[in-house]
Amino acid sequence: MSKLNIIKRKKTSTQKTAQITRALELVSSSKLSRLADKNAQSEYYASILSKMIGNLANCTESFAENNSFIKPHKSVNVVGLVIISSDRGLCGNLNHLLFREVVQYMQDLQAQEKGVVLCTVGQKATEFFQKYNLPVLEAYPKPELSPDATLSACQKMIYQYTQNNIDEVHLFYNKMVSILEQKPNKKQLLPIEKTPEADSKHQREYIFEPNREVVFKSLLDRYIRYTIYQAAIENATSEEAARMIAMKNATDNANKIIDSLQLSANKARQAQITTELSEIIGGSEAIT
Questions:
Q1: Considering the domain boundaries, does residue 47 fall inside one?
Q2: DSSP one-letter code for 164
Q3: Is the N-terminal amide bond of 210 cis, ω within 30° of 0?
């Protein structure tokens, strides 16, 4: 096969790759637009709910003292980590940076002689932590983005916390700073932390209907649901943003390779024509 034909085959193959990466970029861009709207809505709701829980915890001492989801355990011996990752790749180093953050935190806990239990959400996290034989309590595929579905992925970890087998539960996920930047984020799920918004100006007496216990139970249930849901949406948004940028970079690189191959093809064609002309001229001179 001539050099020109080899170059043409490489160019055709690269053009097909560029078409695929461009299509993936457009798909991720469309998904990102929808997820960004959903993320903004859930973030606002979760913020208001967090503020409400914090105010009640600060203003009603018996609430914080008697509720296991708010009252810290006497000592922290075992920490549960819920790692939310993607199911698929092609999103740059998004998952790698998250796993590195988790491993660093695990090493810090082990240095303090604390036990660690993991719950992985997403195929990539499951593959990574099972590969290194780390203590995975439960592994789940990436759930549907709804409060009930995301909660079900963490119920075993929450149950272990209520049974005092785990003293703290933390969420690890990716948070989108901007379309061009995503970074790993850690958030304490249990026990529920007091929020900064819960200051002295909210310390007042509350009237509860139908009663205090029902209201507290409902709020805590919603808080836990939407904290996990918010983390899952944040991670999904970061994933699509990272994939869109990765596919755009891949498409740009493919186009550069195509241009380079086109230039090489032109040079090869020019050399071929020059060789053919030289042969024709040489043959005519030999005849004459």
A1: yes
A2: T
A3: yes
What angle separates helix 94-111 from helix 212-287, to the nearest 10 degrees?
130
Q: How many CB atoms lie within 10 A of CB 148?
A: 10
The gap from C-alpha 138 to its chain's centroid, in whole angstroms, comes to 18
**What's the Cα-to-Cα distance from 17 to each of 12, 13, 28, 179, 253, rounded to whole Å?**
9, 6, 17, 24, 11
Which CATH number do you get for residue 106? 3.40.1380.10
> How does pLDDT run across 188-238, given as a tens digit for each residue?
988 887 654 555 555 566 677 777 777 777 888 888 888 888 889 999 999
Structure confidence by residue, pLDDT tens digits, 79-111 = 999 999 988 888 888 999 999 999 999 999 989
In degrees rounded to 5, what are phi and psi of residue 92? 70, -145
Number of independent structural domains in the chain: 1
Please state, in angstroms and as integers, the Cα–Cα distance from residue 249 to each residue in 21, 70, 158, 243, following that order.
Answer: 9, 46, 41, 10
Quick one: pLDDT at residue 64?
59
Residue 3 placed within a domain: no
Report yes or no on 219 lying in a domain: yes
Q: Which of 59, 99, 35 is nearest to 236 (CA)?
A: 35
Q: How many helices (H) and strands (E) does the chain have?
A: 7, 5
What is the pTM for the complete model shown?
A: 0.82
User: Using CA atoms, how far apart are residues 202 and 197, in angstroms rounded to an integer?
Assistant: 9
d(CA 95, CA 286): 69
Residue 140 has pLDDT above 60, yes or no: yes
pLDDT band at 66; cut points 50, 70, 90: low
CB distance 160 to 78 below 8 Å = no
